[in-house]
Amino acid sequence: MIPEYIKKTLKALSDAGFESFVVGGAVRDTLRGVPVHDYDVTTSALPELSKAAMEKAGFKTIIDSSARFGTVVFLDPENNENKIEITTFRSDCDYTDFRHPEDVMFTSSIEKDAARRDFTVNALYMDAEGNIKDPNGTGETDIKAGIIRAVGDPVTRFQEDALRILRAVRFEAQTGFVIEENTARAMKETAHLLKNISAERIQYELTGIVTAYNGPLAVRHNLEVISQIIPELLIQDGFDQRSRYHDRDLLTHTLDVLDGVPLKEDGKKDRAIAIAALIHDIGKPAVFTVDENGAGHMKKHSIAGVKIAERIAKELKFSNKLAHEVTELVLYHDSFPKPERGAVKQFSAMLGFDLYEKLFVLQRADIAAHSPLGLARMQLLDQIMEVYRQLREENPCMSINELAVSGNDLMALGYPEGPLIGDILKDVLEKVMLEIIPNDKDDILCYVRGEYWL
Length: 454
Ligand code: ATP
Ligand code: MG
Prior knowledge:
This protein has 22 helices and 13 strands. With about 450 residues, it is an alpha+beta fold.
């Protein structure tokens, strides 16, 4: 079960006289019977000594800048894809910024190492033969029962490092495990400490939550935590839209849409679609009005939503591409062109093929989470998608190579070598396929000059 290069690692350390184990997600996922995505190794050897032992066995040190915290990273000489992270047993002390320990203390005690880990299911140790050590005592049974339980006193552990709160939600989303009662209560109590956590880490965990199969339930169960990041979600809970097109409250609708976003081959949802699903209706409560007949209206909620989406993208430091995709998906989630060639062509040109196909996925999930009356729109979406399919089929072998301009032509105009050239050619190809510009050198260069300023 354990790959050869990890067995070699454990042997290198034990030959040098140290204890060593696989720990963390790899043990958790092995016991759950799901694929392991990376192996963390822990050892009684101090960083310098594990370095010496590993290099003697032929491994290459690639990162030792974090040795102060006990972690050194190595490369398997037989396969460059295999990185091995080795961390010395340690006990953390004195957290002062709700995230980083002031200092770490190395220890030869596996019990102390287990006590500083976040959840019992993440604090199991496996040797080369697959034997398990469970110093906290409930790790193995918690995995069998599907329970996420903080190691030690949960409030203290979340006060030490608030990132653990979000990690718990992500583990619930990814494993379908249930967060143990005291741990869940402590998460609510300390959720406000998430303001101390960096945007990058929050973005990473939030992405992990929404792209996982159990994301919708994890968000519902941990709404107080998630609304520290996106406060507008809280009011969605129980929000009655008073519309014949809807038969469930706004949060249930939102989470059903997220649930309807399909998993890709890698078992995860597309990041932009999943984030957009979570916030597609985030603008609704702000524009909600009730008419004299008691019916709710939410005109221009997409535009109100985009403003909030832009703020979230900025706060969480989304990349430009992710921010663009999410805001466009929110803006157009409720927009449907006539199912005619010209209109569909225009939409395709505006969004680009990739993003338009993501919008289709979001719209399908959105429509499916409406009342039976609201479901009628699915026919329209199907018609639009059929027109789109025909449009794309018409130019089956059109490729960048067949364009009347090449990357060299663009560079001759002064555009710098690099990814921009590829982006421009992709854009030009779409415009040519959509017959917005003819496949003619002068026309294309004229378009490029106007669209991409040097
Ligand atoms: P995955 O890699 O699937 O996200 P993992 O459990 O391996 O899950 P890592 O971030 O790779 O998570 O961390 C490895 C191990 O280090 C964890 O299993 C846990 O024991 C410990 N750990 C990581 N982050 C923390 C933290 N913030 N507080 C305490 N222990 C942590
Ligand atoms: Mg890991």
